[in-house]
Amino acid sequence: MVNVRKCAMIGCGFVGASAAFSLVESGLFSEMVLIDANHDKAEGEAMDLNHGMPFVRPMDIYAGGYDDLPDCGLIIITAGANQKPNETRMDLVNKNVGIFKSIIPEIKKRQCEGILLIVSNPVDILTYVALKLSGLPASRVIGSGTVLDTARLKFLLGQHLDVDSRSVHAFIIGEHGDSELAVWSSANVSGIELDHFCELCGHFNHMESMRSLYEGVRDSAYEIIRKKGATYYGIAMAVRRIAECIVRNEHSILPVSSLIEGHYGLSGVCMGVPTIVGSAGVEKVLDIPLSAEEQKQLLDSADALKKVLHTIEL
User: Fold this and answer.
1) Residues 203, 161: contact at Cβ < 8 Å?
2) Which among 39, 160, 169, 176 is annotated as catalytic?
3) How far is Cα of residue 25 from the mean position of the Cα atoms in its chain?
4) Average pLDDT in the 16-30 region?
5) What are the C-alpha distances in Å from 154 to residues 106, 163, 220?
């Protein structure tokens, strides 16, 4: 029987450890198992997190193995090679597909009934790989998609307009990577069309601003990696947000990555698009209105992912 209050973190590197910390602070779970190829690393992270228990809600945190997974409501996978300076997320494909070929069969072997949340990069490719190797229903295999990219866009827009980023409504969709696109056609600030709100704030160079903001989102990971070696806090908070939607059955809309079949004229690919997320995982993929140019960019993004998928043997 699935325990919705139990989660597993597979991979205890920068991203996995940061996500585990974020989830401990959230109070969402009563039990968390940490799994890593380096068991000592998992034990050390568990010890460190446990020492903060007097400050948060009670929780059982421990280092374990794949035998601890069958009753997990949520299995989060962050394991994989890190993106290095001057390296794209796609450059990680072969390394991390190989790692997933060792992890996913272990999950399948134990007939886990929970939801898989893929965070490792390239996340869209690895979400597809996890789906195919696990044999799980598509609704139960989710990638973090463009949830973080969308948050980055909202932050930068809020900063640009001097307004609370939580009042900004806009999406980054497609690949979590260089071919992602911003959906400017439906972007708004608390219901006010974006261009009009910009003009209210004294901003009139819309095309230049959109290009600059988009590039700021697309290239932000490269900049962070150049400056500090890795990105992990932002994605950790994105993982927490996705977990909240699942555990609380929120039916919230997030641009997670999942199998696209028939939406936007696409099929056979996993990528980030607005999706209703709840306790069953993916509840409904939404076909939000796109301009003709945005539709073309989304098709191009899907093609870029499919070219990589065609090079992978599963």
Assistant:
1) yes
2) 176
3) 19
4) 98
5) 38, 10, 13
From CA 215, how far away is CA 233, in angstroms rounded?
A: 20
C-alpha separations of 58 from 27, 30, 226 in Å: 8, 7, 38
* Cα gap 127→123, rounded to integer Å: 6
Verify whether residue 176 is a known catalytic residue.
Answer: yes
Q: Which two tokens stand for residue 192?
A: 């006010």
| CA–CA dist 275, 286 (Å, integer) | 6
Residue 223: what pLDDT? Answer: 95
CA separation for the pair 234, 237 (Å, rounded): 5
The amino acid at 10: I
Instruction: Tell me the pLDDT tens digit for each residue of 275-310.
Output: 999 999 999 999 999 999 999 999 999 999 999 999
Give the angle 121-125-128 at the CA atoms, nearest 5°.
125
pLDDT in tens, 215-243: 999 999 999 999 999 999 999 999 999 99
Q: Are strands 188-189 and 172-173 parallel, antiparallel or unpaired?
A: unpaired
Cis peptide preceding 122, ω within 30 of 0: yes
